[in-house]
Amino acid sequence: MKHYTSIHDIDDINSWIADAKALKQAPLQDVTLGKDKTIGLLFFNSSLRTRLSTQKAALNLGMNPIVMNVSGDAWGIEFGDGTVMDGNTAEHIKEAAAVVSQYCDIIAVRAFPTLTDKTKDESEQVLKSFVTYASVPIVNMESATGHPLQGLTDALTISEHAKVAKPKVVLSWAPHVKTLPHAVANSFVQAMQKMDVEFVITHPEGYDLNPEITGNTPIIYNQEEAFANADFVYTKNWCSYSDYGKILSEDPNWMITKEKLGDAKFMHCLPVRRNVVVEDAVLDSDSSLVIQQANNRTYAAQLVLKKLLENL
Amino acid sequence: MKHYTSIHDIDDINSWIADAKALKQAPLQDVTLGKDKTIGLLFFNSSLRTRLSTQKAALNLGMNPIVMNVSGDAWGIEFGDGTVMDGNTAEHIKEAAAVVSQYCDIIAVRAFPTLTDKTKDESEQVLKSFVTYASVPIVNMESATGHPLQGLTDALTISEHAKVAKPKVVLSWAPHVKTLPHAVANSFVQAMQKMDVEFVITHPEGYDLNPEITGNTPIIYNQEEAFANADFVYTKNWCSYSDYGKILSEDPNWMITKEKLGDAKFMHCLPVRRNVVVEDAVLDSDSSLVIQQANNRTYAAQLVLKKLLENL
Amino acid sequence: MKHYTSIHDIDDINSWIADAKALKQAPLQDVTLGKDKTIGLLFFNSSLRTRLSTQKAALNLGMNPIVMNVSGDAWGIEFGDGTVMDGNTAEHIKEAAAVVSQYCDIIAVRAFPTLTDKTKDESEQVLKSFVTYASVPIVNMESATGHPLQGLTDALTISEHAKVAKPKVVLSWAPHVKTLPHAVANSFVQAMQKMDVEFVITHPEGYDLNPEITGNTPIIYNQEEAFANADFVYTKNWCSYSDYGKILSEDPNWMITKEKLGDAKFMHCLPVRRNVVVEDAVLDSDSSLVIQQANNRTYAAQLVLKKLLENL
């Protein structure tokens, strides 16, 4: 593995899950592996879990994390090819990525989509530019269309909490007041497709994810029907993909409640808006796995960094 | 001690002062105590001394500091119970505090008061929410009503510079152009009440601090009278407590001058506005202890972190 | 050397270049020198290379870097002497510098010029205030009139890539859309004046740098003439010095092209605006040394920090 940009970079999800569990048992087992190595965490967007858990993962490997809010700490980066840079951007990604590669052994990047320009978002311009122009491994800390550190975390969490050999996992859309990306949902879908689970997706009509990602995964437009006998309900809002970037529904009937959930475990990548996406009664109960998920972010990131370090 | 949120968490101030002095003599004596441990410094507000000295203290103990400006680096946090989060806040403190506890062995928090909503400020909503929902020790890096790292620092500084067994210490209000919190004054009052000093407070009428905090401490509305035979003059502006958040006076006659100070030592938590709160002639003289105080911030923080680490 | 504020702090540039090359060969040779030592990086302005390379340099020496965006993380600093601080600044540099000296063994500062007040800029108020009021060594991470870490980097890069004993080096102005400082150009001029090179400066009339800095260095107003037989073309935009802060020309004929460059190597401190300052064809070719320059920032900074640490 040269980079970790998508769930497709995982060759064997079951062995990765086993490795992550082993790291979680003894997080400091590789504390000399990253000695005198530096990871640059570049944020084009806000972050809490990713910012902290990736730093923690790096520290567990003995690495030195250097964190930078690109726009706030530096200046606007240009991604266009051949641009006459007489506008608001002060440095081209060709230089920026190559330069940061001089100081960091690994570069991790967070860059959200525009949600207005589908073609641009699907081109993954920022992430792919780093892959192209950097000379060190790139880690995706959530890009326009994927959040593979979260997807790996979620696979690990489901594996830890499954009580049957082949659990039923439901990805459910839920309402939200803001236009949100598809990245977390996409990576979750891709992770579940690699696992031995019964996996279905449920959302209102008009909210179908990219069909190239969902593939053969069953889509059920009736949430109650989808939830029948579920072991895990993974919840996330996203905006319309076909009517790109639009909010087509804020229907509160899609909010997750304790009653709907039944015996299933509740999962969410966080941050979550209480009583909009899910009611308090779910999050405040033992049915919720959201804090365990957040904890697993450390070990997913640590496994990815470990594999990249071993390959340097 | 499970948390350090107030001066009341100090069981025996004289033994703490002795311990802090010992740390100051040999700051690296416990450099392995915090090995592979992480402290998260969460700032809801600006900071210079606290930001740097708490990092320095953590480094002296071998800890890894992770610093985060909550609003700038992440997003708005919701503290209300049962809120339908369809507004500007994106994550509830219940999740945020529990999540950060997954990555940090100690969490330190700075969150200033509104100075418009007395009930809310006195409830210490932010600090207490972290205590309630985090699963690790919480350190108060200045909250709505207290700044106990500063209070401990001040007690240490007075102990170091006292030339008599029971020095006279005066807390004096001074003018300022902005509405400032009571936190520093409150913690200083509480620290002095635990020490063997002759302690009086002086301020214009209408500026009485919370009477539950000042208790039996004498309050003198005449600054000159209060300063008579003082060994230490601790100066701080605060807004009115009774007429909450209001500036009732900017009377320059309350500014501290070399003449007023006499042989007393001048103390201030900093930042201080020169020639508004205190004249240059004081700060630029040997009567000023403000830099020594700032230095002691490291050892006060280090002692608190050491005690918390020993108790993990 | 007590501080590193200007190229004039370099006693013997050839021996410094040799030392920097040795560090580059074995960057971790002094990894215990900075153990338990802290460097504070204080940014009054944006930074990418300087921010990352100085941290990397400190880490290579085993130091703990603490980074702070002064305005964003703290508040406005007052530099005026005797000011009645009833305005927007909350802390005086006298306190700020002395206080930061309590927590950091070395302080590095970036503070750009106003480009509107020549007298103030030339007084180097911010940098000199730190030198005056701090009690630890100060490193200039780009001040109003100089960028000596860059100048040392550039000298090192030229030394590495020179193919003749006394190469011809041209400093060329190039167009830009914004008003830019003279700092990089000044330090480059001062560095070249110390080296055994044939050095000329070229720019449109009206763009003469401070004559006290350029001294006897030949100035040629015809770019083509200046470039004849050049080995290195160092490019940089700056605003007018005589008509202080003004943009007198955006003439695209001064942009650097592959054709103009010929066999010379292209150098720039970055960030660079593509197709405004220099065309893509130059930056995307082997003639460009900009990434190698960026890499050398680490070793220039590391040499400076090493010398300061050895002198503590």
UniProtKB/TrEMBL annotation, chains A, B, C:
Pathway info: Amino-acid biosynthesis; L-arginine biosynthesis
Q: Which family does the record assign?
A: Belongs to the aspartate/ornithine carbamoyltransferase superfamily. SOTCase family.
Q: Which residues bind N(2)-succinyl-L-ornithine?
A: 142, 176, 236, 273
Q: Where does carbamoyl phosphate bind?
A: 47-50, 75, 110, 147-150, 269-270, 297
> How does this protein assemble?
Homotrimer.
Q: Which InterPro entries match?
A: ArgF'-like (IPR043696), Asp/Orn_carbamoyltranf_P-bd (IPR006132), Asp/Orn_carbamoylTrfase (IPR006130), Asp/Orn_carbamoylTrfase_sf (IPR036901), Asp_carbamoyltransf_Asp/Orn-bd (IPR006131)
Domain (Aspartate/ornithine carbamoyltransferase carbamoyl-P binding) spans: 2-160
What region holds the Aspartate/ornithine carbamoyltransferase Asp/Orn-binding domain?
Answer: 184-305
**Pfam families in UniProt:** OTCace (PF00185), OTCace_N (PF02729)
Q: Name one GO biological process term.
A: L-arginine biosynthetic process via ornithine
**From which lineage does this chain's organism come?**
Bacteria, Pseudomonadati, Bacteroidota, Flavobacteriia, Flavobacteriales
Which EC number(s) does the record attach to this protein? 2.1.3.11
Top-level lineage group? Bacteria
Provide the top EC class: transferase
The protein's name in its UniProt record: N-succinylornithine carbamoyltransferase
What does this protein's UniProt record list under function? Catalyzes the transfer of the carbamoyl group from carbamoyl phosphate to the delta-amino group of N(2)-succinyl-L-ornithine to produce N(2)-succinyl-L-citrulline. Is essential for arginine biosynthesis.
Q: Which reaction does it catalyse?
A: N(2)-succinyl-L-ornithine + carbamoyl phosphate = N(2)-succinyl-L-citrulline + phosphate + H(+)
State whether keyword Amino-acid biosynthesis applies. Answer: yes
Species name: Flavivirga eckloniae
Q: What gene does this protein come from?
A: argF'
Entry GO MF terms = amino acid binding; ornithine carbamoyltransferase activity
Q: Recite the UniProt keywords alphabetically.
A: Amino-acid biosynthesis, Arginine biosynthesis, Transferase
